[in-house]
Every structure is written in C-alpha cells, then in structure tokens.
C-alpha cells in the first residue's frame, strides 16, 4: 500500500506541475514543468524488429534482469511528454547492475550522450561516477517482441523539483539535458568505465608490417 501510494503521489505531482508549465508563464515555470517531467517515466515502447527487455530494480540498490532495446517511447519520459526515441541496455545480477539509457537525440556509440551507470550495492561501490538523473531510481523495463512498457521513478528528481521552486537546481538539468552535480560546472562527464556487453564490434586489427 505504501509503495502504491508513492506511485500515485508521483503521478499527481507530475500532472499538476505539467499543467502549470503548459500555461506558458515564462522560463521559471517552464523549468519547473521540466523538473516534473523528469520524476516519473511511464509509457509504452515500440520497436520495428523484435527485441527483448526485462529489468527491474529497487532504489538502485538491487536489480535483476537484462535488456537490449532500441525503438520509440510514447508517454511521459526522456524529459518530455509525447513520443521520442529510446535506447536502453542493462544487466542485473542482484547486488550488481549496469544500465545505459538514451533519450531523443542520442548516439549509442558515444557514451557521453547517454545516462550510463552501475547500480546495486556492489555496483555503487565499484563505480560511483554517474549523472544525477537516475541516482537513485526504480527502473522497470518490460518489452517482448515489438511492444512493451516502462515504469520508472527517479527519486533525486523529486528533490530537484521541490528545491527548484527556490531556484536551486540540484540535478543541474534546468539548462543542460543530462545534468551535473551542484558542485560541478556544465558539461561534467560523470561517466564510469563502459560495461562490455560482448556484442560491440571489435577494433580493427593492426596492419601487418611490410615484408
């Protein structure tokens, strides 16, 4: 019941703030609306070719499953309301997880265009570096074949939304899509070593010396 109440509260908070932002009352309220849209991600996925994803995590401390998904997302998510491109790759072994998320104008070959981070208790200890957006969060990606659903709650974005009314930008994403921590300047990478899923193209072999 408590968990359901948290999700309902998140939906109400997001809906109210989005309504305010759509009134067009200037940059300040637009940013609060953007903050609200970053709290909850809920919608459906579609892929042109069959792809699979089944991943669930709890407060980024434990997670299970795996995902390889690239297609479109329709709903609230990716800092927008509507339909946008989505890339999601993950693996979870309980206390160790790794996730990559790309929204909209991303390039999966360029890690700097993605949210990329290790989770689970062991993952946090191994590699703390991460962008604020999903630190921590409860991510749920379920997709089989051509269709699926996404249901994510980003806890730090709740604080970012509340503190944003005082003009404090906790997640550094009012004027920067992927954000940065308050003690950093814009453009901070916050990227850990990228996990090797084992299916990326291998580097070209070095040329043989002339005989």
Q: What would you say this structure looks like, in words?
A:
The chain has one domain. The chain has 4 helices and 7 strands, in the order ααβββββαββα. The C terminus is likely disordered. It has 211 residues and is of the alpha+beta class. β3 and β4 form a beta hairpin. Strands 5-4-3-2-1-7-6 form a 7-stranded antiparallel β-sheet. Helices cover 23% and strands 37% of the residues. α1 runs antiparallel to α2 and α2 packs antiparallel against α4.
Strand content: 35-45%
Query: Percent range for helical residues?
Result: 10-25%
- What is the number of helical segments per DSSP (H or I, 4+ residues)? 4
Overall 3D shape: globular
**Spans where pLDDT lies below 50 across 5 or more residues:** 202-211
Which terms summarize this structure?
211 residues, alpha+beta, disordered C terminus
In short:
The protein has 211 residues and is α+β, with helices and mostly antiparallel strands. Helix content is 23%, strand content 37%.
SSE blueprint and pairings:
Elements: H1 2-21, H2 27-37, E1 40-58, E2 62-77, E3 80-94, E4 97-103, E5 115-119, H3 120-126, E6 137-138, E7 140-154, H4 155-164
Antiparallel strand pairs: 1-2, 1-7, 2-3, 3-4, 4-5, 6-7
